[in-house]
Amino acid sequence: MELLRTERISKSYQGRQILRDIGIHLEEGELVSLLGLSGSGKTTLLNIMSGLVMPDSGRVFLSENDITGKPGQISYMLQKDLLLEHKRVIDNVALPLVIRGMKREEARAKADPYFRQFDLEGTQMLYPAQMSGGMRQRAALLRTYLGSNGVILLDEPFSALDMITRGQIHTWYMDIMQKIGFSTILITHDADEAILLSDRIYLLTGSPGEIHHEIRIGTPREDRRDFNLQPEFVRYKRQIRDALEQASG
C-alpha cells in the first residue's frame, strides 16, 4: 500500500532552481533512500515532504491526503540527534507526545515500553550526556517514531557515527523496522549505506536536482548480514556509479 508520494515537485531559491518535477513514492514497510551528491536538493525535498517548505509547484500526499505545506504530519529527524541536554532521556523521547497535549506522566508511561524494543532499557532516567553516540541516536529515533504517523524522514542520521557504531545501528534499524512496522525515507550520500538498508534507491542528481534512476534492491533485508562482502553488493554499487556518471555526462 502506498503511504507517501510526491507529484511534480519543483522549487527555486533566489532565482536558482533547486528541484524539478520530482515524483517519488513510499510503500508501507519500505525503506527508500534518496542518494545524491551535496547540492542536489535532497534536504530541500525532505523539507518539502515534511511540510516545512512550500514547493513552487507540485503536491505531497500522505495516505491520499494532501499535506503540502502542512508541518507535523510526518516525523523528521536531522543529522544531529538534537536531544535536550537538561532533560532526562525519557522526557526527551516523550516530547512529541507532550507537544500533542499529553501530561508528562502519561507521556512517560506511553514511551516507557518502547525503551526495551529500542535497546535503551535502563536509560530512562539518564541525561543525554551519559549515553554513547549510538544510544543517543536510538533515543532520537524513538522520539521520532513516537511523533510519527508510521512514516519517518531521516536526513543522514548515521553519518556522524564511527564505522563500527554505524554498522551496528544499520543492523539494528533494519530489525526494528520489521518488529514495529514503520516506513522510512532516508537521505544519504553514501552508496554503501543506501544499498545495505534500502528496498529502493532514487538517484537525485543534477542542477536542478531530478530523479534520473530508481534502483530496486532484490536481496531481502533479513539476508543482508555481511552483504557488503558479497558479489551482488558490488554489482549494485557499480550500477549506481554507472547511473551517476550517465546522469552527469
Task: Please tag this protein with its features.
11 strands, five-stranded antiparallel beta sheet, globular, 249 residues, Rossmann fold, six-stranded mixed beta sheet, 9 helices, single chain, alpha/beta
Summarize it.
This protein has 249 residues and is α/β, with parallel strands linked by helices.
Number of helices: 9
Give me the secondary-structure category: alpha/beta
The pLDDT mean sits at 89
**Spatial sequence of strands, sheet with the most strands:** 7-8-9-4-10-11
- The low-confidence parts are none
Order of helical and strand elements: EEEEHEEEHHHHHEHEHEEH
Helix content: 25-40%
Shape: globular
Instruction: Return Rg in Å.
Output: 18 Å
Largest sheet entry: 6 strands, mixed
The span between the termini is: 36 Å
Using the coordinates shown, work out and report the CATH topology of the domain at 74-187: Rossmann fold
Q: How many strand units?
A: 11
Query: DSSP strand (E) fraction?
Result: 15-25%
Top-tier CATH class of the domain at 74-187: Alpha Beta
Question: What is the fold's blueprint, element by element?
Answer:
Elements: E1 2-13, E2 16-22, E3 25-27, E4 31-35, H1 42-49, E5 57-62, E6 65-66, E7 75-77, H2 89-93, H3 95-99, H4 104-111, H5 114-117, H6 133-146, E8 151-155, H7 163-181, E9 183-188, H8 191-197, E10 200-205, E11 210-216, H9 231-248
Parallel strand pairs: 4-9, 4-10, 7-8, 8-9
Antiparallel strand pairs: 1-2, 1-3, 1-5, 5-6, 10-11
Helix pairs in contact: 8-9
Explained architecture:
The structure is a single chain. The protein has a domain at 74-187: 3-Layer(aba) Sandwich (Rossmann fold), CATH 3.40.50. With 249 residues, it is of the alpha/beta class. It is built from 9 helices and 11 strands. It is globular, with a radius of gyration of 18 Å.
